[in-house]
Write a structure and sequence with these properties.
- The protein is α/β, with parallel strands linked by helices and 247 residues long.
- It contains nine helices and five strands.
- The protein has a five-stranded mixed sheet with strand order 2-1-3-5-4, with helices on both faces.
- It is globular, with a radius of gyration of 17 Å.
- The N and C termini lie far apart (37 Å).
């Protein structure tokens, strides 16, 4: 997959032979001018607390094993979190909540993610997002989500032999996931399942596969600060996902 045009990277996703190749392709993408400009500006201006660090400043690929049975789908990397560290849900308060919950249920080897090389590993679980670049104000546009969708679509295909459960954090990710599932010929109910915390839907594919989709409020700093979602609530969803995947 060498020599791909970075501005056309999403359209090359379908030819990625494995997860490692897909992750490399994601990290080269320059398909969304607004997101490219923002992520690179943030990486230069930096936050004062991280002024001595070198920011990743590129799209953030998924993180976790290529044979995971559980996939966690977020929204997009944080400007001074994943956009700085180069790893999903790492280096910001949202990541601390999520990894803390993952560690509590036995799906991560550590609870305090700080960098790509902190030694934390995910167990039978993979993290991804429908948009791989940090967006201004944490708000990708529908067009940016659509442009990034081939990456998520291919990720689901490459995980298909093992994937049993998808945990979706927030309504944006829920909408993005079901759009990709519909495009991939999954039997998505009509009307489309509504996002709520604790939602649980079993989706089948004509080839005989099935996957359970679970909804959770996003672990954003706003949601945790207001009490809309707590670490215990997230742990409950992740434990349910693990139980389903192992049954």
């Amino acid at each position: 997959m060498t020599g791909e045009d970075p501005e056309k990277a999403p359209w090359a996703a379908e030819s990625a032979p494995d997860i490692a190749a897909l992750d490399r392709l994601v990290s080269t993408c320059r398909a969304c001018p607004r997101l490219v400009a923002w992520r690179e500006e943030v990486a230069v201006v930096k936050r004062a607390a991280f002024r001595d660090e070198e920011y990743w400043g590129r799209p953030v690929p998924g993180f976790g094993p290529a044979d995971a049975r559980v996939l966690v789908v977020g929204l997009a990397p944080a400007a001074h979190g994943g956009n700085r560290t180069g790893r999903m849900f790492t280096g910001d308060p949202s990541g601390n909540v999520l990894f803390g919950a993952l560690h509590a249920v036995g799906s991560a080897t550590g609870a305090h993610p700080v960098s790509r090389d902190d030694g934390i590993e995910l167990l039978d679980t993979r993290l991804t997002a429908p948009v791989h670049c940090a967006p201004p104000e944490n708000k990708p546009t529908p067009e940016e989500r659509h442009r990034c969708a081939p990456f998520l679509s291919r990720e689901l295909e490459l995980l298909s032999s093992t994937l049993r459960v998808i945990v979706v954090l927030g309504g944006f990710g829920w909408q993005a996931l079901f759009t990709v599932l519909s495009a991939g010929d999954w039997n998505v109910p009509r009307p489309r399942p509504r996002f709520t915390h604790g939602a649980q839907v079993v989706i089948t594919h004509p080839d005989g596969r099935s996957v359970t989709v679970l909804g959770s409020y996003h672990v954003s700093q706003r949601n945790t600060a207001t009490g809309k979602v707590s670490p215990a609530m997230v742990e409950d969803i992740l434990l349910r996902a693990k139980t389903i995947a192992e049954s």
